[in-house]
Amino acid sequence: MRYLVAVGLAVIVACAGAAGLVSGAKSQLEGVARVDVVVAELAPPSDGFENYLLVGTDSREGVDPNDPDYATMGGDLGSQRSDTIMILRYDTAAQTAALMSFPRDLFVTIGNGEKKNRINTAYSLGADMLIRTIRANFNIPIHHYVEINFQGFKELVDAVGGVHVCVPYGAKDQNTGLRIHRGCNLLDGVKALRFARSRHYHQFINGKWQLEGTGDIGRTARQRQFVAALLKDTVKYSAANPFGVGGVMRSIVGAVTADPALDIASFLKRLKPAADGSIASYGLDVENDVVNEMSVVQLAGNSRSVLEYFAGIGPAPVVEPPA
């Protein structure tokens, strides 16, 4: 679920953009819940680009314990924890979009203070603290904020009839219940959740099950892969089932929360060129570390070029090859 907000937003874009239903769906989109606490932390409008902070929440609250995906959720009832932290950057001149994900174990200074912890901790102190933390550590302005909940992710995947994900090897994860075969798999909401949450991802290579070994980093890469796949399949669904888009919209509206200033209908129109799934995907180079007996990851390698691009002070880095 780490990428779930990005997925939810992407699905809205794809549905409304591909089917040309932005205007007709505007009344439904007005039902999206709003969060006021982030307003003071949002950056003023920019001429060249806008950054949308996308957060997936990890609480089990409101989810039926009998649902097959309940066991894969990491948050306790009523807890506020982010399992997904991504930024979507939209270039207003080129009309292109890019995604970057933060590993939730990334070691950062929390807010403007001196205490350090995992970036995931900032969200537990409030969405405004997460925005402040990103700005203080990376100089990245956040213009808008969107979050989506766990159950909403499952429902929106099912609403578009599932999503095709292609993998080079059979894969499983006993912790999440994931099991998929080599090649292309049609994942429903439950299976998609298992794929997205897998940190103990095993692949069947040369007749043996082998741990993929990249943990949280591998998971964020698979999540970005899934964002692109969901975009493409949603475009196809919207074109083939124009009268079914309303149901997709309803599932999204019930799952999404946004800042008060975000005009979602206008945002969809601006992101219509990205509805074909051609979104650049960036990960951060990190290395494992242990701080005060806590497992974390630290920035490494060429992370600076990615961070500078999203901060608006550097060119777009070379795009990662498709997963």
Structure characterization notes:
The structure is a single chain. The chain is α+β, with helices and mostly antiparallel strands. It has a single domain (4-159, 234-311), classed as Nucleotidyltransferase, domain 5. Helices cover 35% and strands 25% of the residues. Helix 1 (4-19) runs parallel beside helix 5, helix 1 (4-19) runs parallel beside helix 7 (215-240) and helix 1 runs antiparallel to helix 8 (245-253). Residues 74-79 have low confidence and may be disordered.
Provide the fold topology.
Blueprint: H1 4-19, H2 22-29, E1 33-34, E2 49-57, E3 82-91, E4 96-101, E5 107-109, E6 116-118, H3 119-124, H4 127-138, E7 144-148, H5 150-159, E8 163-167, E9 170-173, E10 178-180, E11 183-187, H6 189-197, E12 202-205, E13 208-211, H7 215-240, H8 245-253, E14 256-258, H9 264-270, E15 280-282, E16 286-291, E17 294-299, H10 303-311
Helix pairs in contact: 1-5, 1-7, 1-8, 2-9, 5-6, 5-8, 6-7
Domain Cell envelope-related transcriptional attenuator: 81-233
InterPro entries: LytR/CpsA/Psr_CW_biosynth, LytR_CpsA_psr
Q: Summarize this, please?
A:
With 323 residues, the chain is of the alpha+beta class.
What number of domains? 1
Distance between the termini: 18 Å
What integer value in Å does the Rg equal?
Answer: 18 Å
- Measured by DSSP, the beta-strand proportion falls in 25-35%
Contiguous uncertain segments of 5+ residues: 74-79
Q: Main beta sheet, described? A: 7 strands, mixed
CATH class category: Alpha Beta
Helix-strand string: HHEEEEEEHHEHEEEEHEEHHEHEEEH
Number of strands: 17
Separate helix tally = 10
Mean pLDDT level: 80
Domain Cell envelope-related transcriptional attenuator: 81-233
